Amino acid sequence: MGSNGIEPVLFNTFNTIFMIILVTVTLYPFLNTIAVSLNAGNDTIRGGIYLWPRQWTTQNYKAVFASGTIYNAFWISVARTVISTLLNIFLTTMLAYTLSRKEYVFRKSITVIFVLTMYFSAGLIPGYFLIKQLHLLNTFWVYVIPSMISAFNMIVIRTYIGTLPESLIESAKIDGAGDFKIFMRIIFPLCKPVLATIALFVAVGAWNSWFDAFLYTSSRQELSTLQYELMKLLSSTMNSNSNPNVAAGIGMKENSALSMVTPISIRAAVTIVASVPILCVYPFLQKYFVVGLNVGSVKE
């Protein structure tokens, strides 16, 4: 075998080894968290849990789902994530398309205003009073309305729209299509790759958010979100476990032995419960990340 035959073999070998190491390093924290969440809390304190639980138990998850409020909070989180993502994507894309049109005379000044909001904020207290004056306190829409438009996402989408062939829009106008029809029939479908990426970012942000629930709807339990409920559970567990060998008010006998819930074990279970739903969404959006920009359209 000549040198030309050896080089591909060496490259493939090192490439395979490198990718295995990369995948292992990437997946290990998540797999370790799953193992800790399925391990008995009092045994987890000893350490040494890597990829496989030493003492299997589901008590950590039972502790998470022990409160009946967790189920309603889950559906509130799902509703706010879906509605916020759909509205943010549609309205931000519509704004981005408007500001991308060169014939729109106010596009530069409006863009500057939106960019300024990325660098300057009124602060927490003025923001709270604004929400109060808009009568959004203790309502579901406080989760949705403030996040309907994103300045950063608008700039990203506008830049993406700027790369689309102008001949597509010109030919549509010649055929008599208006701006809204052009947006719905041409621009919006061609923006799927960038919209999928932004949708994932918006969905993750909405799903992981808990501070707005604490700030605006804490007095209404029925509007509590999953992340806020899990945060309260984790806080109560850590506060009540000054002695790590004492369960956080939750104890169940398994095989005539007291299985303990500790901050480490409950934190792992909370992490898995909070992350799995959003991980299930990713495969449906991944294919759009590599989709061609102008497949089937006019090339400049």
TrEMBL record:
Alphabetically ordered keywords of this record: Cell membrane, Membrane, Transmembrane, Transmembrane helix, Transport
Any GO BP annotation: transmembrane transport
Domain ABC transmembrane type-1 residue range list: 74-285
InterPro entries in the cross-refs: MetI-like, MetI-like_sf
GO cellular component: plasma membrane
Pfam family, one: BPD_transp_1
Localisation: Cell membrane
Topology with respect to the bilayer: Multi-pass membrane protein
Family: Belongs to the binding-protein-dependent transport system permease family.
Name of the protein in question: Sugar ABC transporter permease
Organism: Paenibacillus wynnii
Upper taxonomic lineage: Bacteria, Bacillati, Bacillota, Bacilli, Bacillales
